[in-house]
Amino acid sequence: MPPKPTPFPWPPNPTDLAAPAEKLSPGAIHLLTDAGDDLETDVSLDEPDPTDSEQQSPPRRGVARFIDVFETQLLGRTAQPWSLRAANWKRDEIGDYCPRCGITCRPFELDTLTDPATCPRCRDKRPAWGRFIRIGAYEGLLARAIRELKFTRFRALGEPLGAELGHAIAEELEARDIRPHTARIVPMPMSPWRRLARGIDHALVLARSASRASHVPLARLLVRRHRPSQITLPVSERRGNVAGAFTCRSAVSKCTGISLLILLDDVRTTGATMTEACRTLRQGLPQGHTGPNGSKTEIWAATVGVAPLVRREERA
Fold first, then answer.
1. At a CB cut-off of 8 Å and minimum separation 6, what does 186 contact?
2. Mean pLDDT within 68-76
3. Would the pLDDT of 229 be above 90?
4. Using CA atoms, how far apart are residues 44 and 59, in angstroms rounded to an integer?
5. Which of 53, 108, 110, 163 has the smallest set of CB atoms within 10 Å of its CB?
6. Strand partners, 41
7. What would the mean pLDDT of 190-196 be, rounded to a whole number?
8. What's 89-309's CATH class?
């Protein structure tokens, strides 16, 4: 009598969850932390480099840990999130930059007898905005993150960058006793053609995140005509390129009881775009319009980064 056939095994390749997992990649160890239905995985480096400025974030749990491994091992994450990049980074504080023009200041350079304080570069100038807010200089780590958001559609970087700017806005509002519901964050508009070409409205991504962090409502009050990109033009032609490029939406006339409008963008270089947008916004407000306390509606400017000044000999 022939022997009885062996039953078909299921699953074909059973996995022993109690056994150590195999290595996923050189220098990484796949950790199994739970043998139940909710499998948690993580990746830890065998010998982390102590000289690396971008340290790892605290260990994740549950779904966040699974997504992290899924992105790094299966999809092949090509860039680190902001939480890892900014381990040793912190945003600017009061006194690190001029609150009137946004340029980086040296110690004891600000004239604090004025409100806002001024630096020697903007003391004799009249900017189109009343106060400037930023989180850092446009260089190094911050500059790379802004470029990735802007040109590679890395939306995950826009959330933490906008949140950092939103926290800075909230601190300024609290210091001046301005209630968030009496202010509006106005994102720098993008032309429809450039929006289709880049695939992302980076200023709107930053503004939405800043609005959630600061509890200041978002208001899209400006429209932009398509012009050549400011990046492709020399400094001498940028002001003329944005002249007349902005128009106000009809919603500007409905800004009753608003004491502050905060125009938000990613970077300020020469200030030509921000100046033209603030002037257009000011002209679009109804004549005689005042805030809830009877004062004139203020316009502030806020950007993630501000390009450092370049000396004439360096520019040449």
1. 207, 219, 220, 221, 222, 261, 262, 263, 264, 281
2. 60
3. no
4. 9
5. 108
6. 32
7. 89
8. alpha beta
